[in-house]
Amino acid sequence: MAAVPEGPFPYRIAKESSTSSNPTDAVIFVGVCLVLGIASRHLLRGTKVPYTFALLILGIGIGSLEYGTNNGLGKIGDGIRLWANIDPDLLLAVFLPALLFESSFSMEVHQIKKCMVQMLLLAGPGVMISTFCLGSLLKLTFPYNWSWKTSLLLGGLLSATDPVAVVALLKELGASKKLSTIIEGESLMNDGTAIVVYQLFYKMVLGQSFNWIAIVKFLSQVSLGAVGIGLAFGIASVLWLGFIFNDTVIEITLTLAVSYIAYFAAQEGADVSGVLTVMTLGMYYAAVARTAFKGDGQQSLHHFWEMVAYIANTLIFILSGVVIAEGVLGNHNLFGNNGKAWGYLILLYVFVQVSRIVVVGVLYPALCFFGYGLDLKEATILTWAGLRGAVALSLSLSVKNASGSSYLSSETGTLFVFFTGGIVFLTLIVNGSTTQFILHLLGMDKLSAAKRRILDYTRYEMLNKALEAFGDLGDDEELGPADWPTVKKYIASLNNVEGGPVHPHSGTESDNLDDMNLEDIRIRLLNGVQAAYWGMLDEGRITKTTANLLMQSVDEALDLVQHEPLCDWKGLKDEVHFPNYYKFLQTSICPQKLVTYFIVERLESACYICAAFLRAHRIARTQLHEFIGESEIASKVASESEAEGEEARKFLEDVRVTFPQVLRVVKTRQVTYSVLNHLINYVQNLEKVGLLEQKEMLHLHDAVQTDLKKFLRNPPLAKISKIRDLSSTHPLLDALPSPISDSLKGSSKEVMKMRGVTLFREGVKPNGVWLIFNGVVKWTSKSIRNKHSLHPTFMHGSTLGLYEVLTGKPYLCNMITESVAMCFFLETDNILSLLQSDPAIEDFLWQESAIILVRLLLPKIFEKMAMQELRALAVERSRMNIYIRGETIEIPQRSIGFLLEGFIKPQGVQEEIITPPAALLPPHVDHSFCSFEISGN
């Protein structure tokens, strides 16, 4: 928040309650608060009483004891007075950064994105509407002769739902994920908005004047500047986090330090909203850095921030109660002798609820339209859950500190604290304690029929697991058997399980229940997929960036399970493809490092995504089958999962054919990471079982950690050669004399074709020859029957279109790339010029063209042979013959002839001419399998 020249939170000197008070007495209050918090949480566990409700009551109680008995609590009372007189600015600076960061960091990024517009509406226009509603009601009904500026100042204080209170309430009661996100996100954002609005009216009350342009400029600078600073600190700290290797203590400390430094830099250094800054920082961490913490580190981070939030909530709610008690008991003349103030407090509480209803009502059409939408039941909870907390109370204390001037009387400052504290108390006591009842009344805390059936089924499975465990543990060599009835008596959660298990999907005659079961199983499978991604991240199978993409795709698919089949692949399609800019990077002017960076890393990322997607779905399907067994609904979801992986499998196959070195490097990385982690776990386990001393374990552990660190910073890289560098690997160019081969290379065109591109079409006049270096090309034809061809494809080493160029005939078939293909294209003139150079080269070219023909015409015989074997067969066991007109052609037994040019008339058959290309078989051979029959003339 921007600073005011006079200071929006003037420094407040702690007043000693007695001459013997000591600043160290403040520590006693912290200890007492924590003990009370522990006792409250322990005693209220399992009850319907909100934890924060008990803390506020305890705070009012101990505050009443201290201020009602005039320092009757001794040293504890001195500590209470020190904390009660703390500077409000310091109060916010101590508690808010930790609470805001914990709340925003724990939110799900996908939920934030979906509900962002709704949160902004409530935190922006919603706060303004509430401020003017409350300000107007205060001005028109309260008898204190406040100016419009003063009334709007109190309205602004009371307009923000407090994240400290609301987040604690949501964690205690639990609500739907959508509703929780809206309420928590609104409370985070509108705290910052309300503080900014408070600053504006605070300056006005103190005598500054603003026109509308200045107001808009002020609000824009304070809010947008806070977002920018939050992003800057987030980016810088996440980059720093990337250089920290397996040091959980430093990683957690960094998150704590950056939240406070960012708050201070924004609040005091840049004069913008510290609340919005920390909120932006936490959301950036949730979006980008969540996967930076793995395994134990992530669990430790979660526990740390949970503990920080628990301690801060405990202290701030008890302190709020103390401040409320001080405000009432410390001004007995104002409140004790005049009951009107209490009546106006009740009226103000009604006004607060009315303003909340107005805000939700006015914004309801927009809230229904954006994000996940909002129904009437959720709008009711949203209205009722608008609690107020410590932020409003701290701001009112600031007003009290600044009172006593010509602009603001002391009585007004005292009333601000009284009314604000009273509203905090009433909203928490009334709204907080009845929210769960309203949820129950609206039926929002009930499980669906599908979930109830799953729970019943799970209880039976738990009983079976308990019996299995008893069978394994119930008897041993030393102590003998155990008593199962006694064991079962202590498993109270399973005592009501009777009869046989009922499958959750059996006997569902209702279509609505089937739809609910289908949606439920899809959600469970996708949750299993996401859990598998986390496991693969810990195992080193995927990178942080890949994990973020994969988990985001699951979040998006979860939104659509009610209306669509599984569709988590949809969010990954744009990330899985061969780079279209590959052909530009294949030019000689591009350095190899640039090719590696833009091509290899993109392909590796796509391979990581595809492999992880297939593996996660396979794991989730297996777990689902083991849990729920066979059912029509589960089988349908499993089929949807299988279908989702088709494109991923095809892409990996394309890479395996075109760039096998990329897959090899990806797998090598995964294995290396797993082996090093296995060694770390092995050494740690030796220390646990006592075979290694701690010093010995640490020595070996540090050595392996050093290896792992080197591996992560300098992993193996795949190298992709340029097409021209691969030219010597093609048999045609390799077999030709060097001068001729070099001439062809110089006149050829390097081409990379994506999947599904047609190299040439059947019946079109030939314009050149295609040399295939990598990839798969599929052939189809209307004239050549290929019913016996199981795999009508050509791969590395194929020379396509050579026969047609040599004979001048149209192309015999269509050639379409089945994967990414790296090729050379030689124009017809370049090939025909070779025929004049040397008869041996002409024979070689005819021989090379026959290699493709044999697979086209006789696929049943030659299709299973690799191109290298076919080429060896053509070179070693074939010969080229030229026959003149009228000469008889005899095909020896166990041989096959191929007509390349000319016409042949079979003996004894009238009016039948064999046209090229054709396969010629020896007599008495069954022709039924042959696929060389030519239709047409």
Task: Explain how this protein is built.
Helix 5 packs parallel to helix 6, helix 7 packs antiparallel against helix 9 and helix 21 packs across helix 24. The protein is mainly alpha-helical and 937 residues long. The radius of gyration is 39 Å and the shape is elongated. The N and C termini lie far apart (88 Å). A hairpin with a 3-residue loop joins strand 1 and strand 2. The strands form 4 sheets. It has a 4-stranded antiparallel beta sheet. Strands 4-9-6-7 form a 4-stranded antiparallel beta sheet, with no helix packed on it.
Query: Into which percentage range does the β-strand content fall?
Result: under 5%
Q: Name the strands of the widest sheet in spatial order.
A: 3-10-5-8
Helix percentage: 55-70%
Distance separating the two termini? 88 Å
From the spread of the alpha carbons, the general shape counts as: elongated
**Counted beta strands:** 12
Helix-strand category: mainly alpha
Note the main sheet.
4 strands, antiparallel
State mean pLDDT (0 to 100 scale).
Answer: 80
The radius of gyration over CA amounts to: 39 Å
Regions with pLDDT < 50 over 5+ consecutive residues? 1-19, 927-937
Question: How many separate helices?
Answer: 35
